[in-house]
Target: Methionine--tRNA ligase
Amino acid sequence: MADPFYITTAIHYPNGKPHIGHAYEMIAADAIARFQRQQGRDVFFQTGTDEHGLKMVQTARARDMTARELADEMSSYFRVMAEKLDISCDRFIRTSEADHYRASQAIWEKMAAKGDLYLDRYEGWYSVRDEAFYEEKELVEGEGGQKLSPQGTPVEWTKEETWFFRLSKYQQPLLDFYAANPDFIRPESRRNEVLRFVEGGLVDLSVSRTSFDWGVPVPGSPGHVMYVWVDALTNYLTGAGFPDDAERLARYWPADLHLIGKDIVRFHTVYWPAFLMSADIALPKQVFGHGFLLNRGEKMSKSVGNVVDPMELAETYGVDALRYFLLRDVSFGQDGTFSDEAIVTRANADLSNSFGNLAQRTLSFIAKNCEGAVQAGRADEADAVLLTEVDTACAAFTRAFQDLALSQGVEAWMTGVFACNQYIDAQAPWTLRKTDPERMHAVLGTLLKAIRRLGVTIEPVVPTSAAKLLAQLGPEGDADFKIAPPTPIFPRLELQASEDA
Ligand code: ME8
Model:
């Protein structure tokens, strides 16, 4: 049976509609999932919504609805977005689902059995926006001397009786684990941040709440619901069949990759591994913290009014153009900036003018001049040289994707496209048609092979367009397949004036 590959995104808070950051994370994870499927792995890909916590309660209250109603309404937008963007997830999990409650309570019980949970009184700073506790020393000063979290969100002083998790006990085991698994946290810059944080000392973590009831009930402790991050992180285990399906768990756990944004690396590389160590469950193999998307270099926020709806971008420019742009232009792991102009420029340069044009002129030439089928023809060394160049470009894409260097992979792929365009210009099949038809056939046959390889390679990035293209090319070595006059697959995009420009 194929080697399993379990990949997850963060699960998103459905306290509002999805934004482009959510779309970006899903698209990156989807490209990796599709790539791994192509490599023959048995992929399980999970995304979903994180529905508990105080932020949901407060947003729902402001809208005069229950948290469950809010979650039901908003979660559906995330699901629809996933479908629209061709996200090939195997499960869209909602943390309000029954099997997830079971999983969260089961891991809680294991941590309790270890003696790692105790009841005490919590007093400290809490940010509802981040759903996170902060120590005094971590806070920064905002305008007018107001205390803010390191993420710049408001904090409030909270006091209540809660369950605590003995996080402090795991400081050394975590440091040992990071040392033994240098690839656990990527990229390197995030790993260094986490090391510094853990080396600075860990305090026990408050893991239950009594001031509201929208959460997973703490087993045997009426009035307590779990701190939202305890149940949120456990979603990854729920998807792998924990605790009921031992066979499935053995297959998909530990997860190969948790793909998340840089703001939540601490939860995934400190709290989550500590919970798992406490529960005697294996730790995930890797956590990758991607960067943030900026709108023309600016952080997006509701108050600035520059939040972009990914569905609108996908509708205006096409899903594959958006996917291609995000994966090609944002160096994976770093922050990236986007604008309508940048999307249009990139999609036109690479997809429409280079790859699309290459396919279009080759296919229409064959349809028009060769009755849709090329013969063996007379080979030349130039043909083998081109196919080697294309294979080299595709192999570089594969290596880069294996290493999560997504933009470098796409860039390497483009060198194969450029090689084809140089080849077609140098070989000039339109001249050979009159002077040397045998040679013309060999040139066109070489181009078909090269375009097919490039199309298969780029499929994880632009799945719908690549599939359409491959259908137009027909399978390799099928003499009966007739190439029809093609319809362009990568239309030239026009810049759409945005309303607020
Ligand atoms: O943090 N660019 O949910 P969330 C890129 N529920 N990525 C961005 C982004 C941006 N501008 N803004 C946010 C949560 N993200 C928790 C996760 S996981 C067990 C629980 C990313 O809806 C962010 O970094 O606030 C995170 O990975 C994801 O979107 C969901 O953010």
Observations:
- The chain has a mean pLDDT of 96.
- The pocket of ME8 is lined by residues 10-13, 21-22, 24-25, 50, 232-233, 235, 260-261, 263-264, 292-293, 300 (CB under 6 Å).
